[in-house]
Amino acid sequence: MTTDDAFAASLRLVSGEVAAVADAVANGPSADGILVDIENANRVFLLGAGRSGLALRMTAMRLMHLGLTAYVVGETTTPAISEGDLLIAASGSGTTAGIVRSAETAAKVGARIVALSTTDSSPLADVADHLLVIPAAAKLDRSGEASAQYAGSLFEQAVVLVGDALFHALWQRSGASADELWPRHSNLE
């Protein structure tokens, strides 16, 4: 197989796996409650470790474009979470210690929690007000049965898509035009 053939085959594999997961999430339980909680939150905090965290940074940016106050947990300017706020946390396993602790802290102060995970049976799922199960390979599943991709790649890719889908649905519900969102786009790039 040539390098170009390997690349094309890999691109088809990745896009096929992502499409299958997106279909499963789209055909699963409604995300309407998540959308309502985002719309009603005083502020939205986003938390994930590693590549899941990077994926949620993209979602934070889009929520800001909608005019919502969004923070990435761990940044130096992120304030304390409080009642009336929303935490969106991603952990494939639902057991990542720092994420679970943060979700528990958020719950104790009265914030609502949205969890993105591959499982409905985990400490993160237990503390969440809303759970969106993303049927992707967990990082510890090295069998290749759930995904041919390395580690948690499929979950992380799905987190990007879920974040963009949440943004798009919120944008459509808002009735705002792209021109209305544009002034919030960074002008310091």
Automatic annotation (TrEMBL):
GO terms under biological process: carbohydrate derivative metabolic process
Domain (SIS) ranges: 34-176
Keywords: Isomerase
Classification via PROSITE patterns: SIS
InterPro entries reported in the protein's UniProt record: PHI/rmpB, SIS_dom, SIS_dom_sf
Gene Ontology molecular function: any one: carbohydrate derivative binding
Gene3D superfamilies for this protein: Glucose-6-phosphate isomerase like protein, domain 1
Cited NCBIfam families: RuMP_HxlB
Record's protein name: 6-phospho-3-hexuloisomerase
Organism: Microbacterium sorbitolivorans
Source lineage: Bacteria, Bacillati, Actinomycetota, Actinomycetes, Micrococcales
Encoding gene per record: hxlB
